[in-house]
Amino acid sequence: MDRILVKDRYFKSFISEEEIARRVAEIGAQMSADFQGRQPLLLVVLNGSFVFAADLARRMTTPFTISFIRVRSYDGMSSTGELKEVIGLSEDIEGRPVIIIEDIIDSGFTMDNLLKTLRRKNPSDLRVCTLLAKPENVKGDFSIDYCGFNIPNDFIVGYGLDYDGYGRGLASIYVVDPEAEPVG
């Protein structure tokens, strides 16, 4: 599909299912090589990362454990400027290698603050893996260890990413079509 309707906006094809699968396999192989002989905890940031994390986990050849977290940095409709809560982290990560799995790093605010929070728990190794990054937007004192694709500052949907809750199940990634008017 070259162009699709999600909710009330048209989106056009951006990254194909095949490109995603190839890149996820490469990242899985690299992470497996980097953590050979160790058992990292894959710490998946919900909601958008669930598809990427599932495919990535199937590509890992080294043993790992997996856990899911949600982060909150908003009160109502506005950001508080600090990470308010990490929801779901029940594992003790002291002395363990941890790989944070994220769907997209946009401003980097959430990741920067999540890393600061997790470092206080003394993991032996703490790395960042994201499917997508917007390098022109990313701020913060951290590096991305594993990145699927660097993308421009466009609104995207699919492969776990949503538009008001819609479009997560799309196998490819689509970008908003700036030439198409919203529907309705």
Description:
21% of the residues lie in helices and 33% in strands. It is of the alpha/beta class and 184 residues long. The protein has a domain at 20-32 and 39-72 and 84-154: Rossmann fold. The protein has a six-stranded mixed sheet with strand order 7-4-3-8-9-10. Strands 1-2-12-11 form a four-stranded antiparallel sheet. Helix 2 links the parallel strand 3 (41-45) and strand 4. The two termini are 22 Å apart. The model is unreliable at 74-79 (pLDDT under 50).
Secondary structure layout:
Layout lengths: L2 E4 L2 E7 L1 H18 L6 E5 L4 H10 L5 E8 L1 E2 L2 E2 L5 E3 L9 E9 L3 H11 L5 E9 L12 E5 L5 E2 L15 E4 L8
Parallel strand pairs: 3-4, 3-8, 8-9, 9-10
Antiparallel strand pairs: 1-2, 2-12, 4-7, 5-6, 11-12
**Rg calculated over all Cα atoms:** 17 Å
Order of SSEs, N→C?
Answer: EEHEHEEEEEHEEEE
The CATH architecture designation of the domain at 20-32 and 39-72 and 84-154 is: 3-Layer(aba) Sandwich
Q: Based on DSSP secondary structure assignment, what is the total number of beta strands?
A: 12
- Helix proportion range: 10-25%
Beta-strand fraction estimate: 25-35%
Structural class: alpha/beta
Number of helices: 3
- Shape assignment: globular
* Low-confidence spans: 74-79
Main sheet: strands, sense, barrel? 6 strands, mixed
What's the oligomerization state? single chain
